[in-house]
Protein backbone atom coordinates (compact mmCIF):
# COMPACT_ATOMS: atom_id res chain seq x y z
CA UNK A 1 0.00 0.00 0.00
CA UNK A 2 1.35 3.42 -0.97
CA UNK A 3 1.59 6.21 1.59
CA UNK A 4 -1.17 8.78 1.35
CA UNK A 5 -0.40 11.92 -0.61
CA UNK A 6 -1.82 15.30 0.25
CA UNK A 7 -3.34 15.55 -3.22
CA UNK A 8 -5.12 12.20 -2.98
CA UNK A 9 -6.44 13.11 0.48
CA UNK A 10 -7.86 16.39 -0.87
CA UNK A 11 -9.51 14.42 -3.66
CA UNK A 12 -11.09 12.13 -1.06
CA UNK A 13 -12.20 15.17 0.96
CA UNK A 14 -13.88 16.73 -2.07
CA UNK A 15 -15.64 13.45 -2.89
CA UNK A 16 -16.78 13.06 0.72
CA UNK A 17 -18.41 16.51 0.63
CA UNK A 18 -20.25 15.56 -2.56
CA UNK A 19 -21.37 12.30 -0.95
CA UNK A 20 -22.53 14.15 2.18
CA UNK A 21 -24.70 16.43 0.05
CA UNK A 22 -26.32 13.47 -1.73
CA UNK A 23 -26.96 11.63 1.53
CA UNK A 24 -28.50 14.76 3.03
CA UNK A 25 -30.84 15.10 0.02
CA UNK A 26 -31.85 11.45 0.49
CA UNK A 27 -32.75 12.11 4.12
CA UNK A 28 -29.83 10.15 5.58
CA UNK A 29 -28.68 12.70 8.17
CA UNK A 30 -26.39 10.25 9.98
CA UNK A 31 -24.67 9.22 6.75
CA UNK A 32 -24.33 12.85 5.69
CA UNK A 33 -22.66 13.71 9.01
CA UNK A 34 -20.29 10.78 8.68
CA UNK A 35 -19.19 11.83 5.20
CA UNK A 36 -18.97 15.52 6.19
CA UNK A 37 -16.68 14.66 9.10
CA UNK A 38 -14.46 12.47 6.93
CA UNK A 39 -14.24 15.28 4.37
CA UNK A 40 -12.87 17.53 7.10
CA UNK A 41 -10.63 14.78 8.52
CA UNK A 42 -9.06 14.04 5.12
CA UNK A 43 -8.62 17.75 4.35
CA UNK A 44 -6.98 18.31 7.75
CA UNK A 45 -4.64 15.39 7.14
CA UNK A 46 -3.80 16.75 3.67
CA UNK A 47 -3.08 20.19 5.16
CA UNK A 48 -0.72 18.67 7.73
CA UNK A 49 1.13 16.73 5.03
CA UNK A 50 1.31 19.73 2.71
CA UNK A 51 2.53 22.05 5.48
CA UNK A 52 5.42 19.75 6.36
CA UNK A 53 4.37 19.28 9.98
CA UNK A 54 6.41 16.43 11.44
CA UNK A 55 3.67 13.90 12.07
CA UNK A 56 3.91 10.14 12.44
CA UNK A 57 2.56 7.95 9.63
CA UNK A 58 -0.08 6.47 11.93
CA UNK A 59 -1.60 9.91 12.56
CA UNK A 60 -4.35 9.33 10.00
CA UNK A 61 -5.58 6.32 11.97
CA UNK A 62 -5.96 8.20 15.24
CA UNK A 63 -8.69 10.80 15.00
CA UNK A 64 -7.99 12.60 18.26
CA UNK A 65 -4.24 12.64 17.47
CA UNK A 66 -4.82 14.20 14.08
CA UNK A 67 -7.19 16.82 15.46
CA UNK A 68 -4.79 17.71 18.28
CA UNK A 69 -1.84 17.95 15.88
CA UNK A 70 -3.89 20.04 13.45
CA UNK A 71 -4.86 22.38 16.28
CA UNK A 72 -1.34 22.66 17.68
CA UNK A 73 0.49 23.27 14.40
CA UNK A 74 -2.02 24.84 12.03
CA UNK A 75 -4.52 26.61 14.29
CA UNK A 76 -2.66 27.76 17.40
CA UNK A 77 0.27 29.39 15.63
CA UNK A 78 -0.62 28.71 12.03
CA UNK A 79 -2.71 29.97 9.17
CA UNK A 80 -5.99 28.23 10.06
CA UNK A 81 -8.59 30.21 12.03
CA UNK A 82 -9.67 29.12 15.48
CA UNK A 83 -13.24 28.88 14.16
CA UNK A 84 -12.23 26.25 11.60
CA UNK A 85 -10.37 24.37 14.32
CA UNK A 86 -13.49 24.38 16.50
CA UNK A 87 -15.61 23.19 13.58
CA UNK A 88 -13.33 20.19 13.04
CA UNK A 89 -13.60 19.22 16.72
CA UNK A 90 -17.38 19.67 16.67
CA UNK A 91 -17.65 17.59 13.48
CA UNK A 92 -15.94 14.70 15.24
CA UNK A 93 -18.39 14.94 18.15
CA UNK A 94 -21.36 14.94 15.77
CA UNK A 95 -19.96 12.00 13.80
CA UNK A 96 -19.59 9.97 16.99
CA UNK A 97 -23.25 10.61 17.81
CA UNK A 98 -24.30 9.73 14.26
CA UNK A 99 -22.24 6.55 14.09
CA UNK A 100 -22.40 5.16 17.63
CA UNK A 101 -25.05 6.78 19.78
CA UNK A 102 -28.11 5.22 18.17
CA UNK A 103 -29.87 8.58 18.02
CA UNK A 104 -30.50 10.12 14.63
CA UNK A 105 -29.44 13.68 14.06
CA UNK A 106 -31.93 16.31 12.94
CA UNK A 107 -31.84 17.57 9.37
CA UNK A 108 -30.88 21.15 10.30
CA UNK A 109 -27.81 20.01 12.27
CA UNK A 110 -26.72 17.69 9.47
CA UNK A 111 -27.21 20.42 6.86
CA UNK A 112 -25.12 22.85 8.91
CA UNK A 113 -22.31 20.31 9.23
CA UNK A 114 -22.32 19.62 5.47
CA UNK A 115 -22.03 23.36 4.77
CA UNK A 116 -19.20 23.66 7.30
CA UNK A 117 -17.40 20.67 5.80
CA UNK A 118 -17.54 22.20 2.32
CA UNK A 119 -16.16 25.49 3.68
CA UNK A 120 -13.44 23.66 5.63
CA UNK A 121 -12.30 21.68 2.57
CA UNK A 122 -12.27 24.86 0.48
CA UNK A 123 -10.25 26.70 3.14
CA UNK A 124 -7.62 23.93 3.25
CA UNK A 125 -7.47 23.96 -0.55
CA UNK A 126 -6.90 27.73 -0.58
CA UNK A 127 -4.38 27.77 2.27
CA UNK A 128 -2.25 24.78 1.40
CA UNK A 129 -2.70 24.06 -2.29
CA UNK A 130 -3.60 27.26 -4.15
CA UNK A 131 -1.30 29.56 -2.25
CA UNK A 132 1.06 29.31 0.65
CA UNK A 133 -0.21 31.33 3.59
CA UNK A 134 2.00 33.92 5.21
CA UNK A 135 2.31 33.92 9.01
CA UNK A 136 -0.70 35.64 10.56
CA UNK A 137 -2.76 35.14 7.38
CA UNK A 138 -5.60 33.10 8.87
CA UNK A 139 -8.50 31.96 6.72
CA UNK A 140 -11.86 32.26 8.44
CA UNK A 141 -14.81 29.91 8.20
CA UNK A 142 -16.61 30.56 4.92
CA UNK A 143 -13.68 32.39 3.27
Radius of gyration: 14 Å
Low-confidence stretches: none
Percentage of residues in DSSP E strands = under 5%
Please identify, by name, the CATH architecture.
Up-down Bundle
Which CATH class?
Mainly Alpha
Helix count? Answer: 5
Count of spatially separate domains: 1
Mean pLDDT: 87
Number of strands: 0
Fold and architecture overview:
With 143 residues, this protein is mostly helical. The protein has one domain (6-130): Up-down Bundle (Four Helix Bundle (Hemerythrin (Met), subunit A)). The protein is 71% helix and 0% strand. It has five helices and no strands. Helix 1 packs antiparallel against helix 5 (107-130), helix 2 crosses helix 3 and helix 3 (63-76) runs antiparallel to helix 4 (82-101). The longest helix has 24 residues, at 107-130. The chain starts with 5 loop residues before the first helix and ends in a 13-residue tail after the last helix. The mean pLDDT is 87.
Amino acid sequence: MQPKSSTSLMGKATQAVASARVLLELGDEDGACNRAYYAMFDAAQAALLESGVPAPDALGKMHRGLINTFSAFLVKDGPVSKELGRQLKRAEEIRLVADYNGESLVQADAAELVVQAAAFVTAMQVLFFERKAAPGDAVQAGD
